[in-house]
Amino acid sequence: MNIATATATATATATATTAIAPAPAPEAEPPTRPSTVHHPLPPGPQAAREARRVASWLLAVHPVGRPHDTTEDILVIVSELTSNAVRHARPPYALTLSVESGRAGIALSDASPSLPRQHDGRGPLATRGRGLAIIRALGAELFVSPAPLGKQVIAVLTWPE
Q1: What does the angle CA 109 – CA 77 – CA 95 come to, to the nearest 5 degrees?
Q2: Given 3.40.50.300, 3.20.20.370, 3.30.950.10, 3.30.565.10, which CATH number is that of 34-158?
Q3: How far, in Å, CA of 143 to CA of 161, rounded?
């Protein structure tokens, strides 16, 4: 068999194979209603790890159209809110995360009535006092909602749909 015959045979085989391959299934529409999880967190430093685990799970099972870096931003915000609660408030802690197309709401509840403060004037080598600034730098809006038994610190992150 010469090269021209082999090439023609390979092309005919590839064409025949492609012609009988099934058409790809249409992509499923992403969910349009919000998906929400409310999860109590353990006291202490393990709270942040548990909050990230729960948030990762919800983001994986609720595939709204969001850029990959937005998923990472949500996980950083969850970590920062939880770390702040563990450091500055008292248990019980709970994470509420709601995700829908174009928006995520992240709320961290604690039992302390003390409102969070942004620490200004920290030096560039400071290892604490940057959590709220990091959350704002990621583009989230921050709110605090006092409650009868503590408060909720809420971050809302939006992205183009």
Answers
A1: 25
A2: 3.30.565.10
A3: 23
Indicate the helix (H) or strand (E) that contains 87.
Answer: helix 68-88
- Domain extents for the chain? 34-158
Q: In what order do the strands lie in the sheet with 150-158?
A: 35-41, 93-100, 103-110, 150-158, 141-147
The whole-number pLDDT of residue 32 equals: 52
Rounded mean pLDDT, 127-132: 71
| Structure confidence by residue, pLDDT tens digits, 29-39 | 544 556 999 99
Local structure of 136: helix, strand or coil: helix
What is the three-class DSSP state of 129? Answer: coil
> At residue 21, does pLDDT exceed 70?
no
